[in-house]
Records
---
Amino acid sequence: MLREGDQLPDFSGLNHLGEQVSHENYVGKKLIVFFYPRANTPGCTAEACNLRDNYAKLKAQGYELLGVSADNMKKQASFSVKYSFPYPLLADENLITIKAFGVWGPKKFQGKEYEGIIRTTFVIDESGIIVRVINKVKTKDHAAQILEG
């Protein structure tokens, strides 16, 4: 997993609208990249909606937002429309961006082990350096957690 002080990795993929998104879209900008396991699940919905509800505060601090999961573009689009997200969702079905950030790994749920996305948020400064990694995400209060840092 990437750590504080690491450079934003090169990444690209299609967002929920079918538009190409890459690291180059965020050159010179502060960026929050949040990785979530699956669209329309309770924790992921709480996290994404909390960021939506606090989007103006995050933008006022100069941040761009990008949500990433392994869901396909259709599922990401449905998730975005259903909850009116003002930020893009990357459909990383091939796990390229997910693995570039190092957030794919072993997980446990109800006693079963499997590989999946480790819910993590990266805060990146204007020069493309990761300044904060949040791996104990408070899904219902994530924006405050980001802004307190």
Note: Residues 70 and 93 are 4 Å apart (CA to CA).
---
Amino acid sequence: MTAFPKRRWANCPPYILALFLAVTPAWAVQPDEILADRALESRAREISRDIRCPTCQGESIDDSNAPISRDLRLIIRERLVAGDTDAEVFDYIVARYGEGVLFNPPAEGANLVLWLAGPALFLVGSALALAAGRRRTAPEVALSAEEETRLKEILKE
């Protein structure tokens, strides 16, 4: 009977294991950015999750440590403290940085082409695949009398 192999972390000092267990996702929002009013802070976080970092492109400004993201987070909080609605904050950011900072741009104008391009290409590709599949099937042809007799002879053998 064989013993189970030792685990790799069995010889690790306990403080290293504690370090790995203590690792949590780090938010880029700094303590000095957080608003005292919890409702406004919650709204600021919701807005920040929907705005893309202009530098990182794949992260929201809530997750990004880029200086431009910090500036955008501060602008959002300033606008909310000034009494702007969420829509007004989005409009302000879009007017200043363009629609490229939105994770979900509105489906209107030039963006409508982008929203419809995926489904349209899927439909065109499906139609082409269906047409190619139909073209490959050979039409049924009736056998002549000679071919039928030859086929029967082959099947008997």
Note: The CA atoms of residues 18 and 149 lie 84 Å apart.
